[in-house]
Amino acid sequence: MAKTQAKTLAIVLNTSWNIYNFRIGLLKALQDEGYKIIAIAPRDEYSHKLEALGFSYHDIKMNNKGTNPLEELRLLWRFYRLYKQIKPDVLLHYTIKPNIYGSLAGAGLNIPMISNISGLGTVFLDEAFSSKVARWLYRIALKSVPKVFFSK
Predict the structure, then answer these.
(1) Choosing a second label site near 57 at 20 to 30 A (CA), which of 12, 21, 102, 110?
(2) Per-residue exposure over 48-83, b if at least 16 CB sit within 10 Å of its own CB, e if not
(3) Cα separation of 8 and 10, whole Å?
(4) Is the dihedral of CA 18, 85, 146, 77 positive or negative?
């Protein structure tokens, strides 16, 4: 009987620090269940700690505070290219830019996705133009995500 290949889950956040400090228990549990874990975030001082735990790591350039439309389109393209290269079986997105641009890229490649939106944040409380654009982008991006979790 042939051994089945482990499913690959890519977790995507805006910092490796966030993955290491808040998602490590989940990732270890999934790893123990046989999943191959890929961490995707901008490189920081915690990226090597993720690799030391046996997770694959991919750096993605992301300006967490930026709102330049051309830079945001480049980020969408970076997600698309990376997802096409690594071919994960499932994407787990956290934080606003992975939830929006990562979900759009994943949908374009027909990759199953799960999104987690933590707290409301200023995007849902603020009436600034950039917040309205972000809410509109959320509506578009999350249409292709079958599981969306909201947490405090």
Answers:
(1) 110
(2) ebbeeeebebbebebeeeeeeeeebeebbebbbebb
(3) 7
(4) positive
Coil vs helix vs strand at 65: coil
All domains of the chain in start order, with CATH = 8-151 (3.40.50.2000)
Task: Specify the pLDDT at position 95.
Answer: 92
pLDDT of residue 131: 76
Averaged over successive runs of 10 residues, the pLDDT of the chain (152 residues) comes to 76 97 96 96 97 97 90 97 98 95 97 87 72 84 88 74
Contacts of 62 (CB under 8 A, 6+ apart): 14, 41, 42, 75, 97
Q: Which pLDDT belongs to residue 80?
A: 98
In angstroms, rounded to a whole number, what is the distance separating the alpha carbons of residues 79 and 93? 12
